[in-house]
Amino acid sequence: MALPTLTPEQREAAQAKSREARQARSALLAGIKSGDETIPAVLDRGKSDPIAGKTKVSQLVRALPGYGPAKASAVLEQAGIPEDRRVAGLGSRQREALVSALG
Questions:
Q1: DSSP 3-state helix, strand, coil percentages of the chain (rounded to 5)?
Q2: Which pLDDT belongs to residue 1?
Q3: Which residue of 42, 45, 101, 103 has the lowest C-beta tally within 10 Å?
Q4: What mean pLDDT do residues 48-72 have?
Q5: What distances in angstroms separate CA 81 from CA 24, 59, 87, 90, 92, one per listed residue?
Q6: Is the dihedral of CA 38, 43, 44, 49 positive or negative?
Q7: At what angle do helices 69-79 and 92-102 cross, to 10 degrees?
Q8: Per-position b or e across 20-42, b if 16+ CB within 10 A of its CB
């Protein structure tokens, strides 16, 4: 299936939208890293906030101070969450398991 041909204006609008999404996701992860945001709060608003919902759970865990790739993978495995799962795709039991694994 071929991608549709975009006009320069459509391409620029799409690039601006993706740039804004990346900046918002970066701000969210920076908030986690600084302690202004908490994982349970981000998980709770994952269904209503598209930026939080489209963020990978592994990125959220790695944004926590002291959690690198190995420790984050261990926490996700303990909680039974696949590496590529996004926040909006978590069930209530997975959210609870993640919070208890981090706590």
A1: 65, 0, 30
A2: 78
A3: 103
A4: 94
A5: 24, 13, 10, 8, 12
A6: positive
A7: 130
A8: eeeebbeebbeebeeeebebeeb
> CA-CA distance, 97 to 27, in Å (whole number)?
25
- Tokens 């945001």 correspond to 37
pTM of the model: 0.84
Mean pLDDT confidence for 9-17: 95
Compute the distance between CA of residue 30 and CA of residue 45 in angstroms, rounded to an integer: 17
Residues 6+ apart with CB under 8 A from 90: 43, 46, 57, 81, 98
CA distances from 87 to 3, 36, 98 (A): 28, 18, 11
CB neighbours of 64 closer than 8 A, spacing ≥ 6?
32, 33, 39, 102
